[in-house]
Amino acid sequence: MFTSDDVQAPLLFLDFDGVLSKGLTGDFRHRNLLEAWLRTVQDIRLVITSSWRLERSLEDVQLHFSRDIRSRVVDATPHLPSERLQRQAEILTWREQVGHEGPFAALDDSIEQFEIAWPFVVLTTRHGL
């Protein structure tokens, strides 16, 4: 869970389908790549932006990660379906609600949900990470 100790922590806002999975398969085939990188940067926390957050609890989502990474999945963004640039709006709303002031980036396959100048990495849905 996100705590007051995390307000300055670097965050990665993470989508699943098209990022950790190829397309909408939900197979998490690229999870090991992300986790290997996360093990080299111990202070980064994960906040889930994936639509999976709408159907599953945070605890259930955490179970899709290795034991040593699960505790770094600290929260999920709110759902704001009517917003323009929806993912960006959800991230900004979440940061404001919890008072996050640290660096952040988004890892997503939906470029249309962000302004071009925003700190994000866009992946192709077809290939993922």
By DSSP, the count of extended strands is: 5
Determine the fraction of residues in helical runs and give it as a percent range.
25-40%
Average pLDDT works out at 86
Largest sheet: 5 strands, parallel
Assembly of the depicted chains: single chain
Q: Gyration radius, to the nearest Å?
A: 14 Å
Strand line-up in the sheet with most strands: 3-2-1-4-5
- In the predicted model, the low-confidence regions spanning at least 5 consecutive residues are none
User: How many separate helices?
Assistant: 5
**Range of strand content:** 15-25%
**Global outline:** globular
Alpha carbon gap, first and last residue: 25 Å
Order of helices and strands: EHEHHHEHEE
> How does the helix and strand content classify structurally?
alpha/beta
How would you sum up this structure in a few lines?
With 129 residues, the protein is α/β, with parallel strands linked by helices. The protein has helices spanning 31-40, 52-55, 58-62, 67-70, 86-98; strands at residues 11-14, 45-48, 73-76, 104-108, 120-122.
